[in-house]
Amino acid sequence: MAAAPGWIRQFHAPRGASAPLIICPHAGGGASTYRPFSKQLREHFDVGVLQYPGRQDRAREAALRTLPEIAEGAFDEFALSPWNRDEPITVLGHSMGSIVAFEFVRIAESEGVPVRLLAVSGAVPPGRVAEMPGHPTEDEQLLDHMAGLEGTGSDLLGNRELMRMALPALKADYAAFDRYSCPADVRVQAPVQAMGGSDDDYVTMGDLYGWQQHTESHLRVSMFDGGHFYLHDHVEGIAELLAAEMETTS
Predict the structure, then answer these.
(1) What's the pLDDT tens digit per position in 45-62?
(2) pLDDT at residue 152 above 80?
(3) Domain that holds residue 124
(4) Which of 53, 59, 81, 114 is 20 to 30 A distant from 22 in Cα terms?
(5) What family does the entry list (predicted)?
(6) What is the reported pLDDT for 246?
(7) Which residues are catalytic?
(8) What CATH code is carried by the domain that includes residue 182?
């Protein structure tokens, strides 16, 4: 019997000596969505992209109910992987993936894994998640919600039938996000790089600055043109930002 697919995908081998970087996808997103990031970031990083249960090659597995469970499952595999090599890691997440990344970093630091940077994108700070209105639960409402998330270079959000295929994973992830809560005084030691789209109707610049309360170190905020999924149109710029941050903290 073939082994079940694991948590971490490597789409591109790093070029030369590269620091480990883990990417945490957005709600409903699969690892393959972040192939362009893997390709661009391999110049400076050894990139692993998380594949959450319940989608793509893990579609037969049940999605997990909470974001901390996702982070724990991912970290358990990371701990035994080549990315865990006593070298500081960078963890990048977008939208819901930013909260997964935050929880992943909390576990890493508690286990003695050095974290160079927590990079979050398009996300309110953890302490504010419980204040947010819940996501739609009906199919058509969810599809309308996704169609309204502007600023993506992905064909998925422009194709309602493709989006419909992603609904089971999306529903599970949104439910996990809506269950999440975090005290405002919970902090990581790692510095935070927060990024967002200037036209994002869901996450403001003020929200990004709110991440300061969740780090004992410094916060940097960077804005890009675009909406909630601005990042797909700014792969190169984000890669340059993370590479520069790595050089600053080396």
Answers:
(1) 999 999 999 999 999 999
(2) no
(3) 8-248
(4) 59
(5) Belongs to the thioesterase family.
(6) 81
(7) 95
(8) 3.40.50.1820
